Description:
By secondary structure, the protein is mainly alpha-helical.
Amino acid sequence: MKIASLMGWRRALGIVCLSIVSVAAIVCGHLLREIENANEILSEKDYQRAEQRYLKALGSFRKFNGLRIALPGQFERAFFNYVKAVYSQRRYSDVVEILQNEAAQFPELAGTGAYHLWMGNALFRVAVLQEGEGLELESLQTVVGEYELAVEADRDSWDAKHNYEFIRKLVAQSTSKDPREKEDLQLLVGEIRHSSEEAGDKLPEKLH
């Protein structure tokens, strides 16, 4: 009787485990389809709709913590694509807040190159909007620090290398006593890069 009872419990436990695995597979499949759909909308440059789709997908990751552990790559890509959707709507202060809040909840994000690249991009745009032509040296140095961290975290990021060298050039020009260089400062503002599709020129292999 005891053996039969034990076998019954094992069979029941097996059925429960199988049910849990099946449900998890269904949830994961649905989540991946949501992310794929959001990616397609983002590629169409419908940033507002893409933002909402990514928010829904990220909500699933937050609701079921196991998903973030099981699908870490998909979580990061969905999150940074969400950041891109918000950034592309020129809501730069929102991007800074989103990055800071997410890093507070998931500290590992703050160690990624993408985190520092987007933080540098957003902080630079905020500084431009607030300070205009009179970009403060302190603001630029903060942005330089973010791009340097981005390159250190991801040596293959051409965008981070480009932006790092670009902001260093702005810092040099902002401290220059040559009035002609100061006049050219605002013309350079539009050269910030946040998409690898914009890459073209040869970038430095290492930081100077």
